[in-house]
Amino acid sequence: MAKLTQDELLAQFEEMTLIELSEFVKAFEDKFDVTAAAAAPVVMAGGVAGGAAAEAEEEKDEFDVILTGAGEKKIQVIKVVRELTSLGLKEAKDLVDGTPKPVLEKVNKEAADKAAEALKGAGASVEVK
């Protein structure tokens, strides 16, 4: 198997959605028994949105997903927050308990919509700005 360069890997990551990238990070953590920093998905998502910024001029291309309330199914909301952000259980619980708080920042429209739908499906109140 040919070895990929860093630039080739980064090009592949730029093409991924935030959800796909989050799933990759989880798989990477499981495979190599490591834990990524909590801010890594947000930083990577900023890089993905930054690539989209070059393509779409003058159109808003960065959105924040703000959790405004956990609803009655708080445990389900915590699970979804963990899936979206790769936060640990305590960090995700603190985020849900401290609403309103941003779950994702500076992500593209598609990723923001998917995240908002997932959170709403779990019973949370969400704003996309």
Provide a descriptive summary of the structure in words.
Mean pLDDT is 78; it is low at 52-58. Helix content is 57%, strand content 14%. The radius of gyration is 15 Å and the shape is globular. The longest helix has 16 residues, at 40-55. The chain has helices at 6-14, 18-32, 40-55, 74-85, 89-97, 109-121; strands spanning 63-69, 101-107, 125-128. The protein has six helices and three strands. A three-stranded antiparallel sheet has the order 2-1-3. The chain is α+β, with helices and mostly antiparallel strands and 129 residues long. Helix 2 packs antiparallel against helix 3 (40-55) and helix 4 packs across helix 5 (89-97).
What is the compact description of this entry?
The chain has 129 residues and is α+β, with helices and mostly antiparallel strands. Helices cover 57% and strands 14% of the residues. The protein contains six helices and three strands; from the N terminus they run αααβααβαβ.
Number of helices, where a helix is a run of at least 4 consecutive DSSP H or I residues: 6
Low-pLDDT parts are 52-58
What is the mean pLDDT? 78
* Biggest beta sheet summary: 3 strands, antiparallel
**Tertiary shape:** globular
- Cα-atom radius of gyration: 15 Å
Helix content: 55-70%
Let me know the number of strands.
3
Series of secondary-structure elements, N-terminal to C-terminal: HHHEHHEHE
Q: Report how far the terminal alpha carbons are from each other.
A: 43 Å
Q: In what order do the strands lie side by side in the largest sheet? A: 2-1-3
Structural class: alpha+beta
Percent of residues in β-strands: 5-15%
